[in-house]
């Protein structure tokens, strides 16, 4: 009987302790305020359209001074952004592949910094394309990597001293294709996997300075942005040399193109999930290291995928009917 009484007391004390710890955690979290936009600046690359354009509008509404990097500041996207935003938003000409433009953007930012400095850099500028590796030239890989990877490194290297001074945020736009290797996305996957390696290393280095680094991993948001590059099977096939035309016939090219377009059409039509994640990474007192942005149905699969044996992940792709059609069409005239 005494034993039961003692066990009951232990359970009771443990329950009270857990409740107190939970209450204390809630109290601490309430004292950890999210970042107030007023007096702080954020630099965003790739604001001509898509995620960057929408995030710039949201951060402007929240009182941040927004430096919106645009490839074409005189273009319709940048002009629309300037017209619909407050005077706190400044459109910058910023080609992330140009050292000169990055340095000029830094000078402009330094000349217009608010009192609290540069709180965050959001490396959002990027391109996508689809093609099998044998359809891609070295120039195709170089362009993809120069924008998606070296562009982010170039911008980060230039602006890190300012973000470090503010103990702020570095946010990188990646993709599920950083870890989800599949047909037709070779060059894009290379660029995004490299970007995540850079961001992971930067996160470890910046922790000592109080700077937090986050990676955004969107799934299929092709319809919510204009990042998808439109081309036909004939466009690809005409670039191939004679030997490859014997292997990859035009019929397969057209089938692959139709498959890619239909896949993109099945994705999210609204970018709110991505914008909310980017906003959280910039303003939250406790931003996540990674934001995996896929449907609820797909979430478990993509969470487990990086940890599965290679033989199993490769087998997943063999289940697609596209692979059977591809195998049947190879070498046919």
UniProtKB/TrEMBL annotation:
Any single GO BP term? steroid metabolic process
Q: Does the keyword Phosphoprotein apply?
A: no
Q: Which residues form a coiled coil?
A: none
Q: Which UniProt keywords apply?
A: Membrane, Oxidoreductase, Transmembrane, Transmembrane helix
- Listed Pfam families: adh_short (PF00106)
Similarity comment text for this entry: Belongs to the short-chain dehydrogenases/reductases (SDR) family.
Q: Which PANTHER family match?
A: D-BETA-HYDROXYBUTYRATE DEHYDROGENASE, MITOCHONDRIAL, SHORT-CHAIN DEHYDROGENASE/REDUCTASE FAMILY 9C
Full protein name: D-beta-hydroxybutyrate dehydrogenase, mitochondrial-like
Q: Which organism is it from?
A: Gymnodraco acuticeps
């Amino acid at each position: 009987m005494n034993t039961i009484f003692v066990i009951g007391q232990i359970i009771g004390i443990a329950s009270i302790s857990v409740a107190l710890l939970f209450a204390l955690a809630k109290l601490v979290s309430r004292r950890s305020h999210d970042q107030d936009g007023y007096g702080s600046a954020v630099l965003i690359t790739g604001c001509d359209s898509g995620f960057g354009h929408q995030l710039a509008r949201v951060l402007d509404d929240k009182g941040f001074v927004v430096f919106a990097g645009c490839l074409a500041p005189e273009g319709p996207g940048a002009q629309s952004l300037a017209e619909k935003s407050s005077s706190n938003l400044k459109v910058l000409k910023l080609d992330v592949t140009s050292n000169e433009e990055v340095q000029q953007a830094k000078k402009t930012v330094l000349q217009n910094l608010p009192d609290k400095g540069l709180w965050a850099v959001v490396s959002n500028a990027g391109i996508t394309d689809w093609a099998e590796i044998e359809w891609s030239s070295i120039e195709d890989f170089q362009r993809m990597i120069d924008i998606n990877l070296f562009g982010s490194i170039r911008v980060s290297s230039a602006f890190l001293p300012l973000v470090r001074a503010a103990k702020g945020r570095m946010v990188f736009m990646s993709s599920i294709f950083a870890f989800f290797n599949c047909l037709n996305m070779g060059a894009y996957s290379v660029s995004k996997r490299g970007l995540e390696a850079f961001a992971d290393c930067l996160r470890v280095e910046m922790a000592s300075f109080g700077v937090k680094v986050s990676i955004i991993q969107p799934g299929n948001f092709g319809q919510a942005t204009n990042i998808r590059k439109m081309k036909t099977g004939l466009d690809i096939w005409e670039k191939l040399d004679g030997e490859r035309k014997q292997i990859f016939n035009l019929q397969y090219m057209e089938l692959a193109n139709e498959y890619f377009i239909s896949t993109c059409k099945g994705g999210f039509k609204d970018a709110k999930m991505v914008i909310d994640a980017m906003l959280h990474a910039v303003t939250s007192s406790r931003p996540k290291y990674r934001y995996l942005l896929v449907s609820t149905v797909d979430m478990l699969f993509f969470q487990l995928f990086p940890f599965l044996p290679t033989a199993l992940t490769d087998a997943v792709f063999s289940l697609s009917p596209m692979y059977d059609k591809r195998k049947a069409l190879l070498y046919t005239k």
